[in-house]
Amino acid sequence: MHGRLYGSHEKFCGRKQRSGDLCSGPRHDTAGYGRHTCAVSYTIELIRNHAHVTISHPALSVLDRYDCRNHTELKKTLKEYLNCERNYVKTAARLYIHRNSLLYRLKRIEELTGIDLDNEEIRLHLMLSYLLEE
């Protein structure tokens, strides 16, 4: 099974590189890596094409509904916060908001969703969910 998936991964990356799409970054073929930089894209593609269940984190739906009703951007805030690796200063700058506003939004997100943003497994699930939405 592993060989079949890896071979498919190689084909996927080759197609993406030829089309000028994703995965055009450098290869990491040194000892300890052995994977293309497009492994995440490949994994997302596998999930989209083969998953028969929804694995998106329910917090995103909660934030979607809240944002729609209240004209807020909590879902976008959470995505930027995760993309900035939980760096308050960088996230606030990207969102063009004050750091205290960011802290308020993050507290509100945790209250609305019940998620613990200090839990790395939850953060990974959230990031995967955002990637699947793209």
From TrEMBL:
Domain (PucR C-terminal helix-turn-helix): residue spans on this chain: 75-130
Cleaved signal peptide residues: none
InterPro entries tied to this protein: CdaR-like_regulators, Homeodomain-like_sf, PucR_C-HTH_dom, PucR_C-HTH_sf
Q: Which Pfam families match?
A: HTH_30
Name the record gives this protein: PucR C-terminal helix-turn-helix domain-containing protein
Q: What is the lineage of its organism?
A: Bacteria, Bacillati, Bacillota, Clostridia, Lachnospirales
